[in-house]
Design a protein that fits this description.
Helix content of chain B: 25-40%
Order of helices and strands of chain A: HHHHHHHHH
Number of helices of chain B: 2
Distance between the termini of chain A: 41 Å
CATH architecture of chain A: Up-down Bundle
Largest sheet of chain A: none
Shape of chain B: elongated
Distance between the termini of chain B: 31 Å
Number of strands of chain A: 0
Number of domains of chain A: 1
Largest sheet of chain B: none
CATH class of chain A: Mainly Alpha
Structural class of chain B: mainly alpha
Number of strands of chain B: 0
Oligomer: heterodimer
CATH topology of chain A: Ferritin
Chain lengths: ~210, ~170
Amino acid sequence: MWIYERKLQYPVKIKDPNPQLASLIISQLGGPDGELSAAMRYLNQRYSMPCKEVVATLTDIGTEELAHLEIISAILYQLTRNVCPDDIAKTNFAPYFVDHTTGIYPIAASGVPNDMKYVGIKGDALADLSECQAAEQKARVTYDNLIRLSCDCPDVMDPLRFLREREVVHFQRFGDSMRIVQDHLDGKNFYAFNPSFDKIPADRSHSQR
Amino acid sequence: MGEKRYNGTPDFVSGGVSVRNEKDGCGCGNPARGRDNGRDYGRDYGRDYGRDYGRSGRNENGSGCGCGCGRNDNNGNNVNNGNNGGDDNGCGMSCNELLSRLRELDFAIVDVTEYLNVYPKCTAAREKLARWRAERADIACRYVKKCGGLTVFDNGSWPDVLPWEYNCGCKDRK
């Protein structure tokens, strides 16, 4: 279970609303490489991992992604707070406003709602951890692009930089996890071996090496 | 956007990334699991990694007020002498300062916990985690007493409609 604390992992204090920018940053809420998809991916992938270290890593990083989700939501809320409809009509935020007003709804910048199709869970440690690493890199690139587009808004760029840095650290932790899994697998055959199903008896495993 | 245009890769990278100790794995000198592949994946908690998020409340000489704020006067004496103008266990720190320190410690704890998931035998990281958790508990206790609950289990209920600090849960918004 989780215990909620009423503070953000990183502070968000945006002075000037900017619905145009919100229409872009929302991709990190509900987009294919967004925080919601990341949290769902890691918190569900962890059950089929063969090592307790990797389960712990996925649990902790999945939990941190929920904290990042909250940071993104806070950014969106503050970027669209007290904005009049006339100003919204001039921006790409208008279509979103029609459907959701200024509520926080997880969609991509392209307008596609969040979908579990973005989350790959294969039940194989190597396949899933490879996806985790790729997801972190894709999220990092998305943050790079958002930072490029928000250079006029330092209040927004600051938390985005923090989030971008965390993607890099998570990529490193998943790299560590990948090597732990490989250490536990058959050294000659670990790319064709799923420890969840392909359990080799001890007497046979020795002869196959 | 003019001159503010953002070009290229951001000039910030993950802090503290360094080459691991190939012999020990984690870099702290402790024989943690290690894989000598020459690759760099570790936040090296076994070495001084620059940003000491969990700076100790007490100074190296043991002085300081001991509450985690690290405040001393010029003579190294504790500033928390009870004459701090109505400060109720905040040790001279405002709610915002306490919250800021909480954020720092929480970030450090999250980071070192993720590190320990894969290097569980790194004694340097475990020592830092224990120290930061102790300081975090102390700061959280002071925050709750002075500024209100951090969780629903803390004293009283949340006074705010929304639970985040920028929506004014704290008395001193300065």
